[in-house]
């Protein structure tokens, strides 16, 4: 069973490939991190649930994992084409704070969201820590691959083989969404270094051979990936939007730095496998940060949803499929998670260490085999979840064996089933008019009234709670007595 090879979809070759590590027994992964100028919307967070599931699967398969998720605290302009205003500078001006304080605040919020989603800790290097290394990188490739304009240093994409193969969207006119700058040799050429315009001063700027300014966005991932993981490393992940511009530019820089040839050999790109998660789609238009109250994890919590319900929602779809967000869908995921937690109750005092190998083999072989096959098939988490639910429903089996099986599955899916309690789902919405202790006290009085067959008093208490936004769920098969709704 454990010999089942892990197959992953490589966006560069557009094919499933068996994972074969560069360094035996190790897995080195780089995931493009956020630009910390604002809160992260839940569409951003899907990428990190996917990357975390990948990392957990690699660890489960026995690999020693090194996983880097960078923090972009400088060098990213308003659009993915690296044009427009500087995101950090713009938010600093809007909030009346320094760009450094903006980065610190929003990085902390991002890391809090990761913890809420039970994303395992990763290395989080910041771009500002590597500016000198970026300048050195630029100097090493400038003579053969770059040219200077008034606005900065630009990379000439015609100097590397197979530019744009990852995106497969290059035409004779180049990539249309790249910034239009007078004097560029090719439409797809991109900035290695952005010079501060004459008469302007930025909060984040450094001296370089090409003038005072800031590095281009694409450069940081190349520099940090090489510094922390070494070329070539195993896997590079990101959202599908990165596949079109950011990652092709990163690959071109890697080729220039390593003096490598074309991309028929994927490792010449800097990573052997490139993986991309698809979009989270939300039909109401609130996904955009420009819409005001955009969908962020805190908003889900404010409305009474446990954050792990969102993790489960992500796992219910394959990472390469679009995932449509709706409140109904999130509610269904929450109910599914509650059922899983309820099924755990009989196992809470059980020690999985008491399970015998014989019992594990008899009880879990079929489920564990199918679970393993699902994850080995390009992280097919929807099928893996069905095997977890089969394991939760086991009857007439050794409880230690059942717990051991479920613990192993949950270690990969990351739902924290044995850590969750009924009380954890009683999240008080931000607009609730009543405290939890008041609800519990009222329910205790109601229970006494019902025991005394004083149904008028029982109904009166229920009506009081309803008026304050509390739904009392008599006869709830899940065993939840109430919820704030």
- What is the number of helical segments per DSSP (H or I, 4+ residues)? 14
- What kind of assembly state do the chains in view correspond to? single chain
By secondary-structure content and strand pairing, the structural class works out as alpha/beta
Average pLDDT taken over every residue: 89
Q: How much strand? A: 5-15%
Helicity range:
40-55%
C-alpha Rg (nearest Å): 26 Å
Strand count: 14
Largest sheet features: 4 strands, parallel
Strand order of the largest sheet: 4-3-9-10
Order of helices and strands: EEEHEHHHEEEEHEHEEHHEHHHHHHEE
Q: Please report the distance between the alpha carbons of the first and last residues.
A: 45 Å
Q: Based on CA inertia axes, which overall geometry fits?
A: globular
How are the elements arranged and paired?
Blueprint lengths: L6 E4 L4 E4 L7 E6 L10 H19 L3 E6 L17 H9 L3 H18 L14 H15 E4 L2 E4 L34 E6 L17 E3 L1 H13 L3 E7 L6 H13 L12 E7 L2 E3 L14 H6 L4 H9 L7 E3 L1 H18 L12 H20 L4 H12 L6 H15 L22 H16 L3 H13 L2 E3 L9 E3 L1
Parallel strand pairs: 3-4, 3-9, 9-10, 11-12
Antiparallel strand pairs: 1-2, 5-6, 6-7, 7-8, 13-14
């Amino acid at each position: 069973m454990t010999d089942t090879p892990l197959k992953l979809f490589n966006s560069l070759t557009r094919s499933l490939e068996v994972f074969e590590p560069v360094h035996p027994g190790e897995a080195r992964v780089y995931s493009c991190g956020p630009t910390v100028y604002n809160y992260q919307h839940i569409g951003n967070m899907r990428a990190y649930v996917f990357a975390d599931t990948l990392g957990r699967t690699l660890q489960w398969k026995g690999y020693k994992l090194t996983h880097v998720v960078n923090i972009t605290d400088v060098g990213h302009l308003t659009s993915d084409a690296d044009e427009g205003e500087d995101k950090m500078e713009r938010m600093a001006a809007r909030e009346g704070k320094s760009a450094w304080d903006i980065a610190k605040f929003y990085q902390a919020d991002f890391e809090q969201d990761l913890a809420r989603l039970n994303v395992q800790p990763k290395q989080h290097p910041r771009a500002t820590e590597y500016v000198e290394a970026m300048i050195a990188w630029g100097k090493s490739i400038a003579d053969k691959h770059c040219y200077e304009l008034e606005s900065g240093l630009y990379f000439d994409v015609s100097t590397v083989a197979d530019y744009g193969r990852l995106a497969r969207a290059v035409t004779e006119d180049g990539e249309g969404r790249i910034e239009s700058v007078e004097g560029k040799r090719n439409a797809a050429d991109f900035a290695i270094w952005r010079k501060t315009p004459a008469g302007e001063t930025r909060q984040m700027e450094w001296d370089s051979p090409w003038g005072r300014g800031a590095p281009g966005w694409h450069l940081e991932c190349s520099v940090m990936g090489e510094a922390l993981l070494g070329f070539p490393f195993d896997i590079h992940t990101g959202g599908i939007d990165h596949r079109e511009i950011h990652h092709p530019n990163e690959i071109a820089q890697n080729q220039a730095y390593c003096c490598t040839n074309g991309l028929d050999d994927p490792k010449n790109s800097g990573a052997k496998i490139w993986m991309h998660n698809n979009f989270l789609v939300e039909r109401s238009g609130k996904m955009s940060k420009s819409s005001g109250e955009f969908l962020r994890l805190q908003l889900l919590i404010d409305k009474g949803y446990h954050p792990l319900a969102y993790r489960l929602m992500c796992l219910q779809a394959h990472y390469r499929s679009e995932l449509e967000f709706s409140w109904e869908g999130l509610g269904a995921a929450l109910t599914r998670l509650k059922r899983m937690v309820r099924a755990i109750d009989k196992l809470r005092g059980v020690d999985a260490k008491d399970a015998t190998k014989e019992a594990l083999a008899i009880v879990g072989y079929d489920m564990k085999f199918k679970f393993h096959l699902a994850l080995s098939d390009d992280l097919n988490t929807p099928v893996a979840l069905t095997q977890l639910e089969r394991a939760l429903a086991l009857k007439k089996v050794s409880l230690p064996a059942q717990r051991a099986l479920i613990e192993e599955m949950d270690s990969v899916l990351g739902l924290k089933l044995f850590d969750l309690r009924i009380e954890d789902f009683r999240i008080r919405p931000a607009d609730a008019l009543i405290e939890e202790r008041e609800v519990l006290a009222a329910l205790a009085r109601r229970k006494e009234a019902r025991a005394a067959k004083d149904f008028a008093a029982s109904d009166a208490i229920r009506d009081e709670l309803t008026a304050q936004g509390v739904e009392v769920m008599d006869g709830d098969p899940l065993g939840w007595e109430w919820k704030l709704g």
